[in-house]
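In the design runs reported in the main text, the only information available to the sequence generator was the tokenized backbone. The following block is the verbatim input for one such run; it is reproduced so that readers can re-run the procedure and compare outputs position by position.
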């Protein structure tokens, strides 16, 4: 089950601008928000995700077709209109 969860987190990181920003700002809190929804990750998986260079997700997202992206439509880019 956790491999599927890892794939879902990575998918969110490369296609969801708001989640990517939250992860960059506070990776533990961003992951905790996913765990509260029922997602399962081991401590080792969480540590591996947090240890990665957060810039990786932005660089990979730049390669994904915009039609597959979930854009952050807030005016200030921080969840505030």
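Verbatim output:
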């Amino acid at each position: 089950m956790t491999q599927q969860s890892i794939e879902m987190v990575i998918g969110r990181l490369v296609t969801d601008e708001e989640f990517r920003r939250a992860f960059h700002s506070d990776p533990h809190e961003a992951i905790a928000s996913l765990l509260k929804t029922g997602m399962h990750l081991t401590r080792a998986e969480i540590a591996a995700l947090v240890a990665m260079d957060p810039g990786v997700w932005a660089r990979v997202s730049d390669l994904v077709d915009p039609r597959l992206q979930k854009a952050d439509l807030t005016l200030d880019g921080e969840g505030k209109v």
